[in-house]
């Protein structure tokens, strides 16, 4: 069936609505829905919070009797299983919707085409794939968690124009400006976890909290195989207010882990002979906890391990018009790295924004 201009227009509106749930609905996907009657919107809604009514139910409620005979534009295939809320397929059928246009199929095996089949069986006209690429991009973190059991990994760093994370003495505050840091705080308030390595914890003594607070309170995670994090660090000192998890190796000294546990730190043993292996184990545990997105804030060695493990899904890079040079100054990404340019990791969906004096680049890794 050909896609009309109206189909494209109303699906675009549904996608705009879906984004409003970011940070609120996880581990569920962001979904938007628009109900249209005679080329006019009669109801619209989005999934607003985990456990609350889904987008279709919100839109049906807004439309009332006007939903009968309407076309429903929904960014994701309507669910057909009982979870915290009832199946959206039945809500659409009972409301008398005549046509359902879905952005993309649900990757959840419990749905995965079954929702559209149920609507078709109820003699509702169904079309799937309108603005499919945008719809799939929207639910990419949900899709990764659902199909691979791992969270979406966002790598963030700020660097000078010559690619340095810090000076040769380790000083890095501040490379980027206030506008860049405001975006980082927004990201922190939308993810389930913020991950750094022990070196960054020691060098910067960060808090890793969102200021002002966002819709989510991220668990702060430090990859520290020997449990060497200082009890005097700001992370440990604030563990009672904001969750702190220390990922250690199985042979981390018990005396150290016990002291940190008594200070309110959650200790998690992760298997693996190398940092890359330990990071993979940690990702699997994050998936078991249904964490959908994790923000990795460095440093250089951890970002290198991410790259070597091919674990980065998205990047946010803040480039400041500054030069510091130095053979001993940290570059953004260490690790083993790529041997041949032909194998370089390509980025897609690249967005560039000028922030005061900094340049913000957001992109996703091409799979």
Secondary structure layout:
Blueprint lengths: L4 H14 L13 E6 L2 E7 L8 H9 L7 E6 L11 H8 L3 E6 L9 H8 L3 E4 L3 H7 L1 H9 L3 E9 L17 H11 L4 E5 H7 L14 E5 L10 H4 L6 E5 L5 H9 L3 E4 L5 H14 L4 E4 L3 H9 L5 E7 L26 E9 L2 E8 L2
Parallel strand pairs: 3-4, 4-5, 6-11, 6-12, 7-8, 7-11, 8-9, 9-10
Antiparallel strand pairs: 1-2, 1-3, 12-14, 13-14
Helix pairs in contact: 3-4
Q: What do you see in this structure?
A:
Helices cover 30% and strands 23% of the residues. By secondary structure, it is α/β, with parallel strands linked by helices. Helix 3 packs parallel to helix 4 (114-121). The longest helix has 14 residues, at 5-18. The protein starts with a helix and ends with a strand.
Briefly say what this structure is.
By secondary structure, this protein is an alpha/beta fold. The chain has helices spanning 5-18, 55-63, 88-95, 114-121, 132-138, 140-148, 178-188, 198-204, 234-237, 254-262, 275-288, 300-308; strands at 32-37, 40-46, 71-76, 99-104, 125-128, 152-160, 193-197, 219-223, 244-248, 266-269, 293-296, 314-320, 347-355, 358-365.
